[in-house]
């Protein structure tokens, strides 16, 4: 080692410079930088997979912005993967950047990823081969070298033991006081590493029985690579690794013994690259997360040149002001003072996260945890998304996705956001197709925020949030093709052949149209026609029809030729018409409820199919209405379905109120079992919010007369059915119905005018209609700029508008 320029100190130990660190610790990162500046080694060795050595130069690229991660995945099974996350405040990242800036060779020395990923095939149940200290289940809070990979053995927490020995009950607070709050570069820059090595040595002796095979293998691999570097560069080598491993690397062993530990390890072919990472993913304590609780706070501590508490409080104040909270400079000053006072009372050298949080809660949030939760989410954790340069290796599918993201100006972001798309615009239509294609490939970058309606629309709303592991999903999807379009097409064709039910195939046809996959549609349609010809279950046919009919609507907005779907949809509808009446006979309550949903779905689909410009047989809707009439008048059909059929016919204007009242009277006659009558009412009045009974007192009177005539012994069995129906109504509707029942529905004739109830007269009240016409015209969008009727004049269509609005 060379002498430090101004520090005047040398590395006091013998052999290589071993810098034991806590992964993702800003204090460790500052200490590593100070030690490297003082020692000026000829080579820097970092804990990590050796396959990534060729990727180290990319860390100096101006387009590389942490947090990022090394991604290793099996070539033949991309889903088998592991990440090595690195933030800007990670000691490993600082070491790599120092080496690149000073022209010093940098290398990774951990066990190769080829072995780590293959370990998932071993019978001990380990999965993913995720490396200790980076992809941790419990994270860096567990010990200086990080936590264990998912499914691995868990040893006692060394940090907890050191904290307890120092009189602390919180390992995190001890680490902050001893390391994070210690000024780097003051005094002997090597002293912290020597002290930490001594402490880890004592702990390893205490926990000698808990050494695990995987740690021993990894440390053997590290020692072999350190020896190789020393043969090339001498002892002027700096090693940056988890502090737990330092005593093992200092241990004197033979080359033969280390190679014996590595002999016979399983191995698979792997690829490696850099991928973006997020602070939010760093904060997760399981899966791919590294497990640090406050990455945003750590990044602030590492990046703040001076006055970290003052700068933090200023950032908090700015965030709260953006959320329209009143926070002044006086609040900032008082919060800084309170944080310092709390640190002094608690015996801490500097205010930590707990002190600043308590001060923010008391001074800026008025003691409320609601705004404090926003501060924790946006600043303490943060939603920073890293970036990697274009030169980073990537599968062809990832490169095509990146190209499309730039062309469509659809930038990945770590924070969840909502995206509104107008499909009439070319760019928005392209964004929609891309998001639908990615969903088909299992890359869940975006999810529809609003369920697709049955009538179709030219607008879509998406929730977008880019998660780091989506890079693995893209790599997995790369087996289907080299471009997003080709991969989505191949995936859709394979899914169609493998689909088990007819509904899956029709849903896939809908996805193909949404994603703009014309080449996949013929295969899907051929499978659809074959499955439809063999399907005999009316329920399955009814589940398949709505998605198929919705697909026919997309031709209007997306310009897609959907003519091939029309014949299949019409044939499907005809088979349902034939099979539905016998399928509705002799059903129990649960089966009747399920069949009711099928009937409603088919009703909506037939309505859409009749309005579709595609060629469909004439009279399709009339035949469906005939099916509903048959259901309404057949005694073997459960009351729930009969009542619903009458309601659907009434809503479509196929039967009048007099006929509906007659059918209701028959269903509610004294000879009908009370439970069946209650089910008929549930089917008839369910849905629509109860407005039918509010505006037609004759039907309400029939329900009231039946209910008051139910025998006492049967009333307790009927009541739950009625409560389930009427409890779904709005409070205002229930109140109105109660008032109508209290005064006696239907008194004074079929209309409500005889009872003196306003709004139920036989003739239109012109004066009252004129009063609401401006609002009605505004709601219907009829008040376009330009000359209109003079004040006091009435448009001839106003009466019709009032009737239509009612």
How would you explain this protein's 3D organization?
- By secondary structure, the protein is of the alpha/beta class.
- The protein is 53% helix and 7% strand.
- The chain has 34 helices and ten strands.
- A four-stranded parallel β-sheet has the order 1-6-2-5, with helices on both faces. Strands 4-3-7 form a three-stranded antiparallel β-sheet.
- A hairpin with a 6-residue loop joins strand 3 (68-74) and strand 4 (81-86).
- Helix 19 (484-498) runs parallel beside helix 21, helix 22 packs parallel to helix 24 (589-611) and helix 25 crosses helix 26.
Q: In terms of structural class, how would the helical and strand content be classed?
A: alpha/beta
Largest beta-sheet characterization = 4 strands, parallel
Distance linking N and C termini: 89 Å
How helix-rich are the residues, as a percent range?
40-55%
Please state how the strands of the largest beta sheet are arranged side by side. 1-6-2-5
Unreliable residue stretches: 2-9, 121-154, 285-290, 748-758, 785-794, 799-806
Relative strand content = 5-15%
For this structure, the quaternary state is single chain
Count all strands and give the number: 10
**How would you state the average pLDDT, rounded?**
78
Radius of gyration: 36 Å
Top keywords for this entry?
single chain; 806 residues; alpha/beta; three-stranded antiparallel beta sheet; 34 helices; disordered N terminus; DUF5682 family protein
